[in-house]
Amino acid sequence: MDPQFWRERWELNEIGFHQSQIHPLLSEFWPVVGTGLGQVFVPLCGKSRDMAWLRRQGAFHFRH
């Protein structure tokens, strides 16, 4: 993996794996997962709007 390649993709906004919205399954299953009965793995591909959405839902327990 060439770090410069990814820097250039980011600078040129050529990150095809970035989604403009949160992952649809996250919002669909949040009523179950968000009760504390499960966990959410966020792989951090793209700009990950999922993280901001989770924060707004009150999910403060992030592991890294």
Produce the secondary structure layout:
Blueprint: H1 3-11, H2 24-37, H3 49-56
Describe what this molecule looks like in 3D.
There is one protein chain. By secondary structure, the protein is an all-alpha fold. It has 3 helices and no strands. The radius of gyration is 14 Å and the shape is elongated. The protein starts with a helix and ends in an 8-residue tail after the last helix. 3% of the residues are buried. The model has no long low-confidence stretch (mean pLDDT 78).
Concise description?
With 64 residues, the protein is mainly α. Helices cover 48% and strands 0% of the residues.
Low-confidence stretches: none
Q: What's the average pLDDT?
A: 78
Main sheet summary: none
Give the percentage of residues in beta strands. under 5%
| Helix percent band | 40-55%
Total of DSSP H or I helical runs spanning 4+ residues: 3
The count of β-strands is 0
Cα separation of the termini: 22 Å
Q: What would you report as the Rg, rounded to the nearest angstrom?
A: 14 Å
Order of helices and strands: HHH
Shape: elongated
Structural class: mainly alpha
